[in-house]
Amino acid sequence: MTAKLFETALGIAEPWSVASVAFDETTKVLTISIDFLPGIVAWAQTHQTNGFLEALNGLFQAAKRCARGFIRNKESLNKPGFGLS
Fold it and tell me: What pTM, to 2 d.p., does this model score?
């Protein structure tokens, strides 16, 4: 039950998993052990990475950067740097 709670809180999804959770009250240290072996084995079998999702995220970030420079009114176009003054 605790492992599933920490998997949800940390955003850990299959094939990764939380192996154990321990809290030491004297030192106030929380130790979370994550089992990476199933993920490594899955990559060795499929050779799939998250590169496609990272590239897609880069496109969204570029679109957001372009949208920040979008001007809605004509008075703002007369400012220096826009080439219309």
Answer: 0.42
For 48, how many CA atoms within 13 A lie in the half-sphere containing its CB?
7
State how far the Cα of 83 lies from the Cα of 64, in Å rounded to an integer.
23
| DSSP code at position 21 | E
* Residue 15, preceding peptide bond in cis (omega within 30° of 0): yes
| Domain limits, the chain | 2-69
Which residues are bridge partners to 40 per DSSP?
A: none
pLDDT digit string (tens) for the chain, length 85 residues: 688 888 888 888 877 788 888 889 999 898 988 888 877 787 788 877 778 888 888 888 888 877 776 666 555 555 555 554 4
